[in-house]
Specification:
Elements lengths: L4 E3 L2 E3 L5 E5 L7 E3 L3 E6 L5 E5 L2 E5 L4 E5 L4 E5 L6 E7 H4 L6 H8 L4 E3 L2 H14 L6 H25 L10 H4 L4 H6 L3 H12 L4
Parallel strand pairs: 2-4
Antiparallel strand pairs: 1-2, 3-10, 5-8, 5-10, 6-7, 6-9, 8-11
């Protein structure tokens, strides 16, 4: 279920592990879901997102990844536009052993962009298959494996193209242990505070 509380012009959501697509999303208010990382794209047309006080143009061929704690909404959208998205619980994301520099960028509020037509086709098929369903235990496991594969491919894509690759340097040491990214991220005090707050309030 989705828990929704309106505070001024921000709606707070909790999706959990979820994939979905829709053209009937209410963008009249900012959305915020602190416990989740979101992978999203709009294949029908380019759109403008507003993240807090800044605006980001998102091309229809771009996929974006960001922390749902940043209040966000679409401020211009075509009537036939579909928003595709994958919600990844923070607790799952931090256990996946991604490079510490990548994890830090997400929790620092950066919007990471990807341009990869092949992965886009895979995303469309996968999200359409799982659209808004309540996954079984086995499906949750397959979703988790797919998400890890998908985000590793995103990291690889932006490393190869140089797009959004300023700080991401995947090393053998960062990949060899699932706990590595978690330990290294916690060395940054601001990230440690954010992470601790989320994990302590995750089940409330």
């Amino acid at each position: 279920s989705i828990l929704m509380n309106k505070q001024s012009d921000v709606l707070s959501f909790t999706h959990g592990l979820n994939t979905s697509y829709s053209k009937e999303i209410d963008w009249s208010c900012f959305h915020q879901h602190n416990e989740e990382i979101e992978l999203a794209f709009h294949p029908m047309s380019s759109v403008t997102y507003q993240f807090g006080g800044r605006r980001e143009e998102v091309h229809k061929d771009e996929t974006i990844l960001y922390w749902g704690a940043i209040p966000h909404k679409v401020v211009n959208i075509q009537p036939n536009d579909f928003c595709y998205f994958v919600n990844i619980p923070v607790s799952l994301f931090v256990q996946m052993g991604f490079p510490a520099s990548f994890t830090k960028r997400i929790f620092s509020g950066e919007i990471i962009r990807e341009l990869n037509p092949t992965l886009r086709q895979m995303d469309l098929l996968f999200i359409q298959y799982y659209n808004n369903s309540e996954p079984s235990k086995e499906q949750k496991l397959s979703l988790a494996y797919w998400i890890k594969f998908r985000l590793l491919q995103l990291i690889s894509t932006i490393e190869k193209t140089g797009k959004d690759a300023t700080e991401i340097k995947t090393t053998h040491n960062e990949q060899k242990d699932n706990n590595t990214a978690y330990v290294k991220v916690k060395k940054d005090k601001a990230i440690e505070i954010l992470y601790n707050y989320i994990t302590k309030n995750y089940f409330r």
